[in-house]
Design goal:
five-stranded parallel β-sheet; single chain; alpha/beta; 2 domains; about 200 residues
């Protein structure tokens, strides 16, 4: 039996202070007490996850960074099936995606190799450490590995500020959402900051 929908209901009841007296978690309290509750978001990569979010009246994040294939159907399902809840009256969405941004396309591609290898190793269950660029470039790859890296690039936006902006706007129109969550799994912290700084200069 899938416990996830019940767990969402429990969480919503806890946050909205609407858990019935008979519920085993009724007396659970969180401290310090605040004036409001955090918004509930569900991350999904299929229309099934989107439907759960819709039926529970939560906000919905589509995980483009996990699977770029099912996004349109998932977002449409969420909007069509949405049922208002205590905390959310209208549908609310965003899309999560990998982004690497640099002043030139060549530099962005160079930086991206760290993320490419990290993701490849993660899928293989090898290691979750992010390698410096020079170490990532020295990893011996098979033909299948290179094909997988190319396939995984569909989960990312890699490029100059202009290119990244254009691609985010395109995806915004495609998904019909105005909000994105950006993941940058590069090795160098300053290069991480660079991605977010360049994005801020384009959008703020």
């Amino acid at each position: 039996m899938n416990e996830f929908p019940r767990q969402i209901s429990d969480l919503q009841g806890y946050l909205d202070d609407s858990i019935p007296d008979s519920h085993p978690y009724h007396n659970v309290k969180a401290y310090p007490v605040s004036d409001g509750s955090p918004a509930v978001w569900i991350l999904g990569v299929t229309h099934r996850g989107a439907r759960v979010a819709a039926e529970k009246g939560t906000a919905f994040t589509y995980g483009h960074f996990i699977n770029p294939e099912n996004g349109l159907k998932a977002m449409e399902t969420y909007r069509e099936s949405f049922q208002p809840s205590i905390s959310l009256k209208t549908p609310k969405t965003n899309v999560c995606i990998f982004v690497i941004c640099a002043p030139t396309q060549e530099r962005a591609e160079e930086i991206a190799i760290s993320q490419d290898i990290w993701l490849l190793f993660l899928e293989k269950g090898i290691d979750t450490h992010i390698l410096p660029v020079h170490e990532a470039n020295n990893v011996k790859l098979t033909k299948k590995d290179n094909e997988r890296i190319v396939e995984n690039r569909r989960r990312m936006i890699i490029g100059t500020p202009k290119k990244v902006r254009e691609e985010i706007i395109r995806l915004s129109d495609y998904y019909k959402t105005e909000e994105f969550m950006i993941i940058n799994n590069t090795y160098d912290f300053q290069e991480k900051l660079q991605t977010y700084r360049l994005l801020a200069e384009q959008f703020l």
